[in-house]
């Protein structure tokens, strides 16, 4: 069968997928009797599968990526024109879209200075880790090489990123891991470790980081890597006072603050970046997903000039950042990112994320009033989670299979939502919502109505 004839035969596509495609994050045994899902078209917040069924996508491509929605012809046209003119050149040289997007990006990030291009969030975080390690060897005699990460945070899928990953079930079976990565406690107020709450808990959770630094030895710790809002670990918004204290601690011990914006970046929380919601001044910021809304592969590792200057030393033949990302030289990424950023600005999508995001959170709180199984609602902008419990007093989590059944029920209704799954042992019990930044109140109503019906059917 030719490729052209296969395009006109949906059953052939399904069988080719079943026979040859190894999908992400899914057990393939059921595909022996159930068809794999094939998504063929998208417009706005809606996608259609190969059987013609329409779905409202409440998670922006299932992994929080398509921030400006599907079907943006202006992005596709810009990428096509650029690829025809100059598709790729290795990152040791510059390109026009690479220079233009870097300037536009830095304009949105006061205090930051330099953009290192790569092609995935995992890769961007790897770059940051390598920078920290090289700085340790070049400027600290190799001592300040340890990198702290937080329980329940996730930074990517490579072995080094899993070494910095706070989700034990994502890490299972992939060790041994890279030495020098050390965990600090989570900051989920709903499940505060010591029963604290509010600003007192925020300071206590941050002070727990200092305790780890003192245990490890401040002269051995080079960086602290955190998500501004923990994403896949349960949409954990930091408690009041947390970020202020974290910054004090990093300054006190000369520790680089690395903020992982792979999920929150480019408008998800109602600001260009999640850290900007909290007045944070990072040394390194990594980003991917929403940078080009999935229209092309791109990630960025952005640093201050101070960090960059640590690699400007031609007296040392090994003093520069000795790294390469092959597809960081592809021009499609920054070209798509330029148009993506322009759409966010022209359509006031930061404001829409704030406004409609508040409606999303209010609507989820209204669901919590109707369904005792919802123990906590949290989030910021068009980024929210609802944690499900069997009892609000004990906070015992709902079984992961029941959470999966709710997600499946919503899918059957034509609404795609997310959930923590196979990530945090015993606590894969949070429904996740991250619709595109173009979402309307009507979209939120459809999402929440689907969730309400699913909870009733699955849990009574």
Automatic annotation (TrEMBL):
What is the protein name for this chain?
Aminotransferase class III-fold pyridoxal phosphate-dependent enzyme
Q: Which domain of life is it from?
A: Bacteria
The similarity comment for this entry is:
Belongs to the class-III pyridoxal-phosphate-dependent aminotransferase family.
Q: List the signal peptide residues.
A: none
What one GO molecular function would you report for this record?
transaminase activity
Entry keywords, A to Z? Aminotransferase, Pyridoxal phosphate, Transferase
Keyword tRNA-binding, does the record have it? no
What organism, scientifically named, is this protein from? Loktanella gaetbuli
PANTHER family under this entry? AMINOTRANSFERASE, AMINOTRANSFERASE CLASS-III
Q: Does the keyword Flavoprotein apply?
A: no
Extract the CDD domains matched here: OAT_like
Q: Which cofactor does it need?
A: pyridoxal 5'-phosphate
